[in-house]
Amino acid sequence: MKKIILTTLLTLFVSQVNALEVSDLSNDEASSGLKAALIQGAGQAVSKLGATDGFFANKQVKIPLPESMQKAEKAMRMFGMGKQADELVLKMNRAAEAAVPEAKALLIDSVKKMSLADAKTILTGSEDSATQYFKKTTALPMGEKFLPIVKKATENVQLAQQYNKFAEMGSKYGLVKKEDANLEQYVTQKTLDGVYLMMAQEEAAIRKNPLGQASSLIKKVFGAIGN
Question: What share of the chain is helix, strand, coil (3-state, %, to 5)?
Fold first, then answer.
């Protein structure tokens, strides 16, 4: 009997949420629900990436040597320097994992500064409109936060210095992309890419299944978007 009652109540709740449209939401509801969702998504993305192996064991975001450097990596392995190459890749990913926690405060601050116009644009925009908003508002300051942490994490790897020297020469002759010519800059950019990729996935999950989210306000707002 209890199970039947619970099922009935859930059905009624789902029906009420599905009956909503964005126009039915107040400005405060739309803004607060969106901000709650963004803070939740940002926190989850940072937690996943900022842990040990958050980058290194995740094929989606693991940072390899730049494509333009992979021929050099193959040569290193042929000459018995595979251990050094593996160490560099590991250190690159550990640097990213160490830097990511710095993102949380910046992401939350960006949410708090969001205007009502921004909120409405995100709510009625594309599937990754929230992620695009974060890219626009946090990429520069986040990169500035990440870079010194990445430098510190890679400074003890001698191969990093060799990489920078070789890549700088290669970039002059068009063999290495300019943005890949500095190891720390490359890792910083890849760390940013990883953060936004995870945030896009969190955003997609919330949009796809609003009823699976913890906050009733998130359910209400994103349930309305789905109509």
Answer: 80, 0, 20
Q: Say if CB 64 and CB 93 are below 8 A apart.
A: no
The pTM of this model reads: 0.75
CA distances from 193 to 55, 167, 168 (A): 11, 21, 23
Nearest to 68 by CA among 185, 154, 186, 162: 186
Q: Tell me the C-alpha distance between 207 and 55, whole Å.
A: 25
For residues 100 and 50, is the Cβ–Cβ distance under 8 A? Answer: yes
Residue 45 CA to residue 103 CA, distance in Å, equals 10
Q: What is the dihedral of CA 74, 80, 81, 86, to 10 degrees?
A: 70
Residue by residue, pLDDT tens for the chain (227 residues) are 434 333 333 333 333 333 344 444 555 666 677 788 888 889 999 999 999 999 999 999 999 987 766 766 676 677 676 777 788 889 889 999 999 999 999 999 999 998 888 888 887 888 899 899 999 999 999 999 999 999 888 776 665 666 666 666 666 656 566 666 678 888 999 999 999 999 999 888 877 776 555 555 455 555 555 55
Quote the CA–CA distance of 36 and 189 in Å, as a whole number.
Answer: 27
Residue 20, phi-psi category: left (phi > 0), alpha (psi -120 to 50), beta (remainder):
beta
